[in-house]
DNA sequence: TCACGGAATCGGATAATACTGTTCCGTAGT
DNA sequence: ACTACGGAACAGTATTATCCGATTCCGTGA
């Protein structure tokens, strides 16, 4: 008998967007002390692992064009959170790195994210979380 | 050590945002004929079921403040896609409805979304999709 | 050397988002 | 009935996000 759907299940994409809005807003609220916008938080969170990244790579990770990042990175640089270096081997590329203050901010962001995620995801169990990631991956992949 | 995670599992929130960006962009690209922005598409998609909604309700569904919607709705109204009526029983509220052209656009949006979702989700199986929704719901709930 | 293409930025345009204040309306208290 | 309070939406304003086209600088191959 067709799918044994328990409920009519709202559109996955709409639910996805709502969840993103909600979590983003929540993050910005909890991290209000840092005085950063959502995009800046997002950029720093993606840089938190310490690996340098080019603007293009960062844009691909976040989902925006390099053009969009220029302004965000300008502000982060002006605040002393990031540095713009040259990539060894290709001087066309700009290597984004964290300054000490940027690292502090990024660590705070990651910790806030981790705490939030653990709190929410722990009660659901690893299988569901794994399925969640799998679906996200599929949606992202198929959007290219 | 620590969790026997198969892979380091990137942050769920970062993956969530990337997926949202990617799918939104994909939608806007596929629906370029409609000449609508992401927010407009989002609003129409949420109205597609034909139930009228107040601005506040719509904002809650999308994840933005009513203030933000005013401009979006202005444009949709100017294009003849929506109407602003009064809510029976409370004349403070504005009831957003679809015009025929708005319904056409909304239907096209829903169909594009449905097709995309089916294509991506069908291969994953209903359990994973259900888990996906459950995690989304938990993340959204906990963000209040 | 020179033409081509990639990476990032700049200039300029539009949209998204939200804060504050205002208007209109509903409700409760007197 | 009158008034006070609060909710809903909008107007005004400011900041940010996003991107397109053009430009600059650089790497690569002919």
TrEMBL record, chains A, B:
It comes from Catenulispora pinistramenti. Residues 9-141 form the HTH marR-type domain. Signal peptide: none annotated. Keywords: DNA-binding, Transcription, Transcription regulation. This is MarR family transcriptional regulator.
């Amino acid at each position: 008998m067709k799918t044994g759907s328990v409920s009519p299940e709202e559109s996955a994409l709409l639910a996805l967007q709502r969840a993103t809005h909600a979590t983003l807003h929540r993050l910005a609220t909890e991290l209000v002390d840092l005085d950063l916008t959502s995009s800046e938080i997002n950029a720093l969170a993606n840089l938190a692992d310490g690996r340098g990244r080019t603007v293009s790579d960062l844009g691909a990770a976040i989902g925006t064009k390099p053009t969009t990042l220029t302004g965000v990175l300008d502000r982060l640089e002006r605040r002393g959170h990031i540095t713009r270096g040259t990539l060894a081997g290709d001087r066309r590329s700009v290597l984004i790195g964290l300054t000490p203050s940027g690292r502090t901010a990024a660590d705070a962001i990651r910790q806030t994210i981790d705490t939030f995620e653990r709190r929410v995801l722990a009660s659901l169990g690893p299988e569901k979380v794994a399925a969640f990631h799998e679906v996200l991956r599929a949606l992202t992949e198929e959007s290219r």
